[in-house]
Design a protein that fits this description.
By secondary structure, the chain is an alpha+beta fold. It contains 3 helices and 4 strands, in the order βαββααβ.
């Protein structure tokens, strides 16, 4: 079943976060992910507002989780730590 990787982000260091973004995109693509939303307009209805919201789709929850734990994504993530506050989750879609 397909799964969505959903991130809500507040960037505090745009330069370091830019390095994250440069590496994260190829890492996600390598694991079969494709972006369906990446920093576009949004309306916050509940919860903590984060100005950057990203959604990537993967073929399965397991592939999305494997991407997160991959060496390529962990290298990207090393640039986001300390440069952002984030929430990230993976959720299966419904048919």
């Amino acid at each position: 079943m397909p799964a969505l990787w959903i991130a809500h982000v507040t960037v505090s260091d745009p330069e370091a976060y830019g390095r994250y973004a440069e590496l994260a995109g190829p890492a996600i693509a390598k694991h079969g992910g494709r972006f369906i939303a990446r920093g576009g307009r949004f309306v916050q209805l509940e919860g903590k507002k984060r100005p950057r919201n990203v959604v990537a789709q993967f073929a399965t929850l397991e592939e999305a989780e494997a991407c997160y734990h991959s060496p390529e994504y962990q290298e990207a993530l090393s640039h986001a730590r300390g440069a952002s506050e984030r929430e990230l989750l993976i959720v299966e879609t419904t048919d």
